[in-house]
Amino acid sequence: MAAEFSDVVTQLLKQELAKYLNVAALSVFDYCLTLSLEVHHVWGRKWEITRIVFTISRYLPFIASAMTFYNILYSHKVRVFSTVAQHGPT
């Protein structure tokens, strides 16, 4: 029973990771499509509030995605949950 439950949890985690990877791939694809426009319209300008806000909104999702992937792959809660599922609560 515990092994079956552990397999289900593993499959759900793999599906969640696959969804995040799909979104990341679309984000990188969009970034590549619009990079030439960004170079033309943004990179040559001086640093003003609009450029700062644009840069943060443009690159923060990549940082957040990396943190999310790390959390999914190395989350302590998942390891504790898996241990409890396999061995039962103490």
UniProtKB/TrEMBL annotation:
One Pfam family hit: DUF6533
UniProt cross-references to InterPro entries, sorted A to Z: DUF6533
Transmembrane domains' residue ranges: 20-40, 52-73
Protein name: DUF6533 domain-containing protein
Keywords for this protein: Membrane, Transmembrane, Transmembrane helix
Domain DUF6533 residue range list: 21-63
